[in-house]
Specification:
The structure holds two protein chains of two kinds. By secondary structure, chain A is mainly alpha-helical. Chain A has helices spanning 18-39, 57-61, 64-87, 96-116, 119-123, 125-140, 158-173, 180-201, 203-209, 212-221, 251-267, 271-286, 291-323, 330-336, 342-360, 364-369, 393-422, 426-453; strands at residues 50-52, 226-229, 232-236. Chain B has one helix and no strands. The chains are: A mainly alpha, B mainly alpha.
Chain lengths: 456, 59
């Protein structure tokens, strides 16, 4: 997506070479690993602990009326995206829809989820519409609606995998993926599929297991100390939401898609990809495809291979962990440690899209005022401009390195906590974590290399 | 083009050196441990009535 280019300015005057930051980050992980082995002898995150927010705030924030207001806002924004996409200018930078979808929805909801819990669930327009339709249908049928089908266990998170992969294809592969009209149509198609899923399996069940964005944001919200239970907002131990995740079929591939798509986005700016992509595209062109389709197919291939490589690297770590003993199957270990990939996915997104959110995110001020790009000025902010001086290139790099290191230290902590809960011998637990440490060091090195490629 | 500019590749490799070194160390350590465990088991298998020290367990 050309207009969403990131890594806007070149770094200069770093005190040490960029690759040395990678070595330092690896050292931080090794030191963290040793510290965890010594200072964290018992599992601390496996047991759930939750209490309501003090002062009666919890029931108010989680009340039905707040939920209705948030849902209405979500539905309004969904309608706004579709309307702007279909009726507005087709210039991606002048239309509300592309920036709202790729920056506000896709990126800004993430930090909100990590700080305040599963906020997307409250604002989810499909859930809001599904519940209203269910309520109206229930009234019309006088409570005689047929019960939804049981959600097939073998489906697991696979619908979410398909949804997030499709979004990545739209963002990174489709040459017209930022065209407002295409985004509006994609939104309508996804909405229709979501309504079908909710009609078949029930609103809440489809939202929890199949609706891609709900699953995606819920995973990140599990890092948050804030959680809503039975309509009451409360606090839990930080990170304890992730060990409570119940992985199933598709959970590991979902995390591979989440990390792999960001990896490909970074790698596609690197000479390693820009050097071979034209050759792959010309191969497809020789088969009779148009130049545009050939390039899209090359990018689709690159995206898929990157996701498979990420999946394979994690599986390699799992096979290594299995080799130390303990009697666990590869699948058991892969699912047992998959929650530790969530902070890594967050670190990748945070580091890679940091400047995009900071800079392009500002444009929502003028796009909100002129959503169709037809010269209107609803809030008097249509003339506002993006301030590119809010952060410098070197400061950006330090923040990015910080995100990467912090995300991987958190991942290591989660994996360590799970290992000592899983293995009955402390020695086996630590030895299995050598392999997880290798995975973390690998992902750290990859993340920093990708960031360095933005200015290569 | 890349061969003409090995500096590019060396810098790229530098990023991944920690993980390569770490995995190599891990594999070597594990192989050594396994071979040590195997050689530790050998006396038991060959001489079931002898302790690892070589003295007869029934003596």
């Amino acid at each position: 997506v050309t207009f969403l280019a990131h890594g806007l300015v070149a770094r200069s005057d770093l005190p040490i070479p960029e690759w040395l930051f990678g070595w330092a980050a690896a050292m931080v992980l090794v030191v963290s690993f040793v510290a965890l082995a010594i200072l964290w002898p018992k599992p601390r995150l496996e047991h759930e602990y939750w209490r309501p927010l003090p002062g009666g705030v919890g029931p108010v924030l989680g009340s039905r009326s707040v939920e209705v207001v948030c849902g209405a806002i979500g539905v309004f924004l969904l309608g706004m995206v579709v309307y702007a996409g279909l009726r507005g200018t087709q210039s991606p930078t002048a239309n509300f829809a592309p920036t709202f979808i790729y920056v506000i929805f896709w990126l800004a909801v993430l930090p909100a989820s990590v700080l305040f819990g599963d906020v997307f669930k409250a604002f989810n327009p499909w859930r809001a519409i599904g519940r209203v339709v269910g309520w109206v249908a229930g009234k019309a049928a006088r409570g005689d609606l047929p019960a939804p089908l049981a959600y097939p266990e073998r489906l697991g998170h696979w619908p979410a995998v398909a949804g997030i992969f499709a979004f990545a294809v739209m963002e990174l592969v489709a040459s017209n993926g930022d065209r407002p009209e295409n985004l509006a149509i994609a939104t309508l198609v996804y909405s229709a599929l979501t309504f079908i899923g909710m009609a078949l399996y029930g609103v809440e069940r489809w939202i929890a297991r199949g609706e891609a964005f709900s699953v995606y944001f819920n995973l990140f919200s599990r890092l948050s100390p804030v959680e809503t239970r039975d309509g009451v907002v409360g606090l839990r131990r930080p990170l304890s939401g992730l060990p409570a995740l119940k992985p199933g079929p598709g959970t590991v591939p979902l995390l591979a898609v989440m990390i792999g798509s960001v990896t490909f986005d970074g790698a596609s700016e690197a000479p390693i990809w820009t050097g071979i992509a034209p050759d792959i595209a010309s191969f497809f062109q020789d088969l009779g495809l148009s130049p545009q389709n050939s390039l899209e197919l090359a990018f689709l291939l690159g995206l898929t291979v990157t996701i498979l490589l990420i999946y394979g690297f994690y599986q390699l770590g799992v096979v290594g962990a299995r080799s130390v003993g303990g009697g666990f199957s590869t699948r058991r270990l892969a699912r047992g440690f998959v929650h530790s990939l969530v902070p890594i996915a967050l670190a990748y997104v945070a580091a890679h899209y940091f400047t995009l959110l900071l800079f392009q995110g500002q444009s929502i001020a003028f796009l909100g005022s002129d959503p169709l790009g037809d010269g209107s000025d609803l809030f008097g902010t249509a003339d506002s401009q993006i301030d590119y001086t809010i952060i410098g290139a070197n400061a950006t790099w330090y923040w990015q390195v910080g995100f990467v290191v912090l995300g991987h230290v958190v991942a290591l902590t989660l994996a360590h906590d799970r290992a000592i809960a899983l293995y009955d011998q402390a020695k086996l637990a630590v030895r299995s974590q050598y392999w997880m440490l290798a995975v973390m060091v690998g992902f750290t090195s990859l993340a920093l290399w990708l960031l360095s490629q933005a200015n290569a | 083009m890349y061969i003409a500019h090995p500096g590019h590749w060396l810098v790229n490799i530098a990023y991944f050196l920690p993980v390569v070194v770490f995995i190599a160390w891990l594999v070597i350590t594990q192989i050594k441990e396994r071979s040590r465990a195997r050689s530790g088991d050998t006396p038991h298998r060959r001489y079931p009535h002898h302790s690892p020290s070589g003295r007869s367990s029934d003596g």
